[in-house]
Amino acid sequence: MSADTxxxxxxxxxxxxxxxxxxxxxxxxxxxxxxxxxxxxxxxxWVVVVTSLSSExxxxxxxxxxxxxxxxxxxxxxxxxSGGQVTDAILVSTxxxxxxxxxxxxxxxxxxxxxxxxxxxxxxxxxxxxxxxFLIYPGMIPSYLVVTGLGLKDNLLALILPTAISAFNLVxxxxxxxxxxxELYDSARMDGAGELRILTRIVLPLSKAVxxxxxxxxxxxxxxxxxxxxxxxxxxxxxxxxxxxQQFILAxxxxxxxxxxxxxxxxxxxxxxxxxxxxxxxxxxxxPALIVYPFIQRHFTKGxxxxxxxx
Length: 311
Description:
Elements: H1 24-52, H2 56-62, H3 75-80, H4 85-116, H5 123-132, H6 140-149, H7 167-179, H8 182-190, H9 195-206, H10 208-224, H11 227-232, H12 241-251, H13 274-309
């Protein structure tokens, strides 16, 4: 090397660390961690499904929960769908979820749109009122007194109205509505469009992703809710599926059905094991979310990021 040669220090990459190409050890670590996370999610679901479809002999040999399927026995599902408390509970949860999600979306969209428009009468005070619920919650006893005072005891509206609007979802939608360029509103008003027409023809079509995510939040919340049923619902025919499942797990016995023994060719007519029925009810409660989520998944990340960051 000549004396005139200048040794320059190696230039460091200007890219962030997380954008650098991972090392072989990093790739192996990522794969191991992701595999472990997937196993933690998949294995319990697999055990629940296999146990719900196992015979009493298989469950007894396994000492409870079954991991390796042996004898196929669908009697547990035939029992819970043969009529009775579980069937009524599924119908109640479906009605509450559909009606509650529709009502919550309508109220949240209207409120978020109104609070996102500058100059709306009293919008700062109303927004402060909604944000205050993040810090101050009225409590269980005042909520119970209000609901019962309105005559909603043993009424499906008691499962919908107390949670009809979420301040978090309202803030997310409002942030997205505020991120829409004001020129779109101005051009629509110049064409003679009113606020309702602007909302339905311009704002909502641009908000499909975030609206779908908020709707999923509401739907999952209504489907999984059981505490309001504990407070406000005493009639067995109005209990949602999550409340029935909770009663079943705590009591340790099968939910009431119109026919306990179900005859299946080749399987006999004995009552299926209690654990199989319990796992079948668990499967029934999680299947709707598993069915709906793939249709919403493409909007999920985009909707959460856009609604929470923009604005």
